[in-house]
Each structure stands twice: as structure tokens, then as C-alpha cells.
Amino acid sequence: MHIVKKRKTFSKNKILETEIKLIEFRRKEKLESEEKAINCMKENPRMFFSYINKQRNRKNEIGPFKSGDEFIYNGKEICKKLVSEFFSQFSKTSSVENENRFDEYDSDDLSDIEFGTKDIEEAINDLDENSSAGPDGLPAIFLKKTKETISLPLSFLLRKSLDEGKIPDIFKLAHVTPIHKGGSRQKPEQYRPVSLTSHIMKIFERVIKKKIMKHLIKNQTFNDGQHGFVPGRSTQTQLLAHYNEIYEALMEGKRLDTIFLDFAKAFDKVDHEILLEKVRRHKISGKLGKWIKEFLRNRKFKVVANGCMSEEESVLSGVPQGTVLAAILFVIMISDINENVKECIVRSFADDIRRVNKKINSDRDKELMQEDLEAIYKWASDNKMKFNENKFEQMAHGNIENVELSSYKSPSGDGIEIKSTAKDLGVMASNDLMFKEHMNNIITSSKIVMGMLLRAFSIREKEPMIKLFNTYIKSKLEYCCIVWSPVQQTFITELENIQRTFTSKINGMEGYDYHERLKKLNMYSLERRRDRYFIIYGWQQIEGIKENILNLKTNWKGRSRTMISKVIKGYIEGRRITRKDITSIHNCPARKVERAFNCIPTKLRNITGVQTEAFKEQLDRWLQGVPDLPRGGRYSRWVAAESNAIQDQAVNLRRG
């Protein structure tokens, strides 16, 4: 009996010892994986972020797909299902073809391009060396390593392609990888196609795109409302332009009605014949026009999923996904969308016709806005583009007495749903202009990501931790912050707490308070980063480096330069502006930029005629001598005094 007990005890101890060894082995293996990921962070960032995504439990496997009561697990069958789903997104291109449209051209047409080995090398430099190889099997890193050797033969190949108007079939083939969008993994429609094309073809496209862009800019092809794929414009510039219109309407005592439209599979639905007619209309002809026609025609794709590959299928319509020229061709396609719009402002970001805006002061203004919407619907019908009416949304900013807030009509005649909040280019817009829902969303998502990152890494050295924070968290917290930057202390603190918590977990930062940590890590607080960005952005606008969307002006008093926003001139006698609207106007982007810029020393405000980097260097040098603490002292008192003065002015105007 005693021997049996000893054997049981020995057996338990052996199992416990094995479990301890297994835990130690797994811990050691995890540390080695972390160290390997950290060491390759600079040389191979793709491997580094692959490790991160693995820790986030992101699955690469597709399916299984549900078909009736059964599940499809076979890779080939999964590929067939995806081919059917992606193929259904195409439209049949017009059968009427004008083969001679590019034969005749004027002297100011872009009929051919001149290029050399330098252009080819610049295009090769733009390749991402960590990107996957296309159907031709040539990886980007190989092309980058051999650019000096291959640039000359590639220039000969592109010249021959343009002269003959022919493109090899392998350059018109795409390998399509399905990426899960969200929702059920068992439905093919929950996957979006991402295309991989030949890197050599991308080099050719970059050379051609550069020449086309110069031609289009010279001929003023881009309409004022287009912010997608246009040099110097972005989602931020579109949002700023939109909100500037809102604040102008509020200052004028009007309401701004906004309709958010959405195309259904816009890139895939483009009719090739209609697109080619517009390419010709924009004075692109001759060899280049014929080459673009060849670029669009007879394209093929294969779906790659779970280690299997489908048969080739034809691309019937659309601008080719995964190509460099797709974006600029789509911009050409919709460049005339506002041709018959008379009263409204139409703003778009690529295929996102996100805003049709009009200031409303009477019922007649509403009728005019509906007429402009009908003109846009007709344009879509004439150009064989379809809208996704389920995603139409309507918002109103400001209130007008005796003008009812009612729904505008969609193409089918149904009323468009009126919303108090709507997701707009990554920012949750709200009709009260407070952006509370947007800030709550980014705070919540940032905390989730922060928790995941801190669980993924037990090695918490300074360099990788800061890179992780910048890539996965700070990018969320600062995206288009000039639009929604918080004024409520609650949100300022909550946003700051995310960086406060993360920095406290970095090795060697234990025992230091937040602002001491920032100094040791050579970082700014998020609040200071926002102020710094406002200053730089404002300086770029008044210097003409960036488009002056905020309508900022400079005022010289003696030898001192200050900034003035157009907003301050909006308080004109006789306008009925509510206190709520006054608060919104006071906290608009233009006023925030103006206040931040005017608070820096005169010697910084007076800097002119230099590059942005030189201004940043001078600004950072000054900021190093200013304690990075929560706002206080003269700045906050000045803001408070100014705010009270403006609100008192508004009250006096209403009384008058």
C-alpha cells in the first residue's frame, strides 16, 4: 500500500515536472519569436507585422462556404464560388465600338510620351520591395536590386509596347486573393477581391501615369469637388472643405443639407467604351490612347484561395483592380458628374460621391437641391453606373424656422433616411458637430488594440513599442484630427490616457510620471501633437504650400504676422445665430488653427519662403523649451476670454 502511494506521488510529480517544462518551453519559444520579429522590424517589416497579425488571431483561410444544408471545404470548389461572386460584379460593356477614335488628334493632345531610363528607375524605386510577386513570378525586391541593369531593356520594352499598341497577356492577368470584410466567413459575398498584377507592368503604368497626370492638371480635368487620387488632396481636404461649408451656412443663419450617395461596385461597373470616349475627350489620343484601349481590353483573372487556383476568367468591365492606372482612369470617368448640377456642391473621393451640399433658406432651395440630385441620377443612368440606394443618407446642420426638414428622393422615388450621425470617410459625422460618437469609437477600438499588443509582446523595448503604438494606435487617434479635435476636457483626458497607459508599459519607464516618460521617449503628448499639427497646417496654407481650404489670411502689424480666419468675419449684424451655433463656429477647424498659430512667438509666425521641414525644425526647437503639460496659464485664459467675448457679441446681435 505504501509503495503504491509512492508510485502515485512520483507519477504526479513527473506529470507536474513535464507541464512545467512545457510551459517553460512555450515561454522560451514565444520570447524567441518576439525577438525575431523585433530584430527584423527594420529590414523586413512585413515579417514583423505578420507576427502581429498572427497574435491578433487573424485567419487567412477562406470558408468553408455554406451551400444549402452542406458545407464546401474543397479548395477548388471554394475558388469556383468566389469566381462566380466576383464575376457577378461586372457589367457587359457597350457593343458599339469606335475603333478609330484615337487616330486623329490635335497638336495639344497627349498622343505619345517621352521617357528614358531615369523614368524607369524612378518607377522601380516606388515599388514596395516586400510586396508579393504577380502572375509573372518576378518579385519587387529582385527588380529593385537590379534596376540599373534592367532599366534600359525595360525602357525598350515599354517603347515597343506603345509603338505597336500591344501588351503581353501575362501583363493583363491578375491573381485575385479574397480578403474577409467582416460578417460570416461562410458567405462568398463577405469577401472583397484584392488583385496582384505584374510588377513590370506597374513600372510601365507609373511612367505613363506621371505623364497623364501632368496633362490632366494642365487641362484642368479635375473638378473642384474631386479629392480622390488628385495631387495635394486627400480625405482630410474633402472633410475640411465640407465642414467649412457647414460653418459658413451657420454664420449666414442658414441650414446646410447634405446627401451622402454611394455607387454600387463602382470600379467594377465602368463601361470601357464610355470610359474610352472620355479619355479621348480629355485630349488623350494617338499611340497612348490606343495603348490605354489595349490596357483595358481582354483582361483575365484567377482566384487564389487555400492553396488552390481557379481557371482564367474574363474581366468584362471596370477599371483593372490592382493596377496603377485604375485610379486615374476612374477619376476621368466621373470627372463630368457635376456637369448639369446648377445649385449644389458635389464632393467626391474616388467612387465615394459622399456629399451633395446646399445651403437651405427656403422651400425653393429644397426644390433646387432635388433637381440637382435628379441630374446626378440621370448622369449615373447615362454612364451605366448604379447607385446603392440602401447606403444613401441625409443630414442637416442648423435650423431654419418655417422650412421643414424632410427627406429628399432617391432614384427609385423613396425618401432618403435622415440621420443624426453618419460615417463619413472614416470619421463619424454628427449633426451637432460635437463628434462624441467618433471619439468614443476610436477610444474603444484603441483600447482593444492596445490590450492585444501588450498581450502579444513580453519584450517591451522602446523602439518596437513606439513603432507599434504609432502604427496601430496613434494612426487611429490622429486620423483627420483637425476636423474633430476635442474641446471637451473629458475627451481630451480619455484620449491622452491611451498614450499614458501604453508608455507606462515600456521597459525602463516604471516609476516616472507621464510627462517625464514623454521627455525620455522623445515624444509629445497627443494634445501637443494636435496643436503642433494645427500650427504646421495653418502655416502651409498661408504660405501656399497647401490649398487654402480654410480660407486663412495673414495680417501684418508692423513686423509681426498673425493669422485671421474668415470665420471671425461671420458675425454680421442682423443674423440670427443661436448660442449653440456660436459655440460650434468658435470651435471649428479654422478657428483652432488660427488660435494655435497666433500663440507661437513672432519669430516663428514670421518665417516665410522656406520648406516645411525647415519650419518644423524651428517649431520643434521652440517646443522643446516649453513644458509639455496640460493647457494652462496665458493660453487657456486667452481662449476663455476670447470665447466669452464672442458669445457676448452674439447675444448682443440677437438682442439687436
UniProtKB/TrEMBL annotation:
This is Reverse transcriptase domain-containing protein. It comes from the Eukaryota. InterPro entries: DNA/RNA_pol_sf (IPR043502), RT_dom (IPR000477). Residues 160-429 form the Reverse transcriptase domain. One of its GO terms (biological process) is DNA biosynthetic process. SUPFAM superfamilies: DNA/RNA polymerases.
